[in-house]
Amino acid sequence: MAMPACIFTSSGKIVRLNTIWQKERGYRKESDLALTFDQLLHVADWPSVVPRLHAILAAPQPSDITCRLGTGKWEGRWFQLNIQPLPSPKPGEQHWLCIAMDIDDCKMREAQLEQRIGQQNAMLDASADCIKMLAPDGTLVHMNRTGCQSVGLPKTSILGVPWLPLLPEDVQTEGIEALAIARKGSPARFNGRSVTPDQQCQYWENSLTPMITPDGQLASIVCVSREVTAAYETLQSLKVSEERLSMAARVGGLGIWDYNIVDDRMHCDAAWYHIMGRDPAHPISSIGEFRSFIHPEDVERATEVVQTAAELVAQKADYGIVFRIVRPNGDIRWVRSAACLQTREGVAVRVVGFVIDITDAWRGELALRDANRALAAEKSSLARQTLEDPLTGIANRRHWDSELTRIFLHASETGKAMCVGMIDVDHFKSYNDRNGHLAGDVALQKVAKALHSVARQSDFVARYGGEEFAFVLMNAGDPSRMLDRFMAAIAHLAIPQAESPTGCMTISCGCVVAAPCEKLTPAQLLEASDKALYTAKTAGRNRYIVHTAAMLY
User: 23, 268, 362, 395: which has the fewest C-beta neighbours closer than 10 Å?
Assistant: First the structure.
């Protein structure tokens, strides 16, 4: 058997150790065996493994245990122990077979993944926005610190909890509609509200973005909630103020004007002149005289009477416009004018209305629009950052994983060969130690730019991690020409490196070429290219190794 294996009794005594395990333990022959099963395990795992082992021995059935071994070169390495009962050699004596599978690399990758997830969660927790990951059914998969604080729940209690019922009932209907749109694969938005534990009301702008798998299935929904309490309260205050001013205008309190369309005769009250910054002792009497009060860019729009009146009559609508005026001192003010039309036989003959100064409110509205545009730009930047390596500017590991799957599916549909490869910068640790990490970062940026610049539009290059890069080439039955271009691009950089036989920085590359008919998964292609890279490095570096799928069997 190619893996460590042994047979032991219910008391833990080792009956037989296979050759692999014997050599590792240093035994010359089986008669030298005089140990118990727990002595094969790492002592640090005894507290967790021994009780589990006793439970297995008490109820004979196949079971698995994940733990570390405590022997020789396996000291501290993680193994998956498959333990299953054997037919009893004699009554009253139960024997067990244990087969150990080395999973240390998997455990290390699992630890690295947990670390990266922790870093991502820390980044999300640093955001002032509420960021939530929802399952397609609307239950919470993850929510950052700000989100948990807004609904008054600890992080440990939100997993699997339906999100919308956490919001006040008056916003749940819009939330349900937005969630339904997102489930269909389209972005959606709705305004929300929450009440903090100290009873403060917060208002939110919720943006729902569906996350779609390469095969078109909805994987999850990302909801980013931006607090807009201040803007909301400002807007509500503006609406209340405008309603009050409208009521005052209807009883003749603010800027009343009266215009006879037929005679082109205009009459305005003192409040109207005050808004315009003019002296009512010098009144105007026509639209032509009023034109000089208006900002040149708005004058035509604000004084077009006949056509505007005809359109309003046809639409059975009232008159309303916002425009700028210029006071005698040069001060530019925004005003809103609204009016009702009087008609005779279907033709507008008179307009009576009011004008109010809305400069401060209008500037607030423009500021709100600017804030919304800035928010949209920030969201776009965040989406780009999640797919872009911050150091080199090319695709990151996350983007690589999704793109490899997409390209693999496309190759499967078209039946064309693809090439998956790994690139490692030679002697990079020594370069860092000699020149410093800042110089190392600059070197990685140059390498990434060089690789990306020579790749074809159909190819994909990403930073896999550290000094490693990954690439996938489409329609690449023979990738040697593209690999030569990669090697030449790095050589052209001529980055000095004392440890390199050439005197300049070089790369090693390993890749595997496969056609869809060979039934390999993306993970298997990536693993095979990593092995080819190892071969290139052990063969002296500054070279590439190409494997075919046939070589993997």
Answer: 23
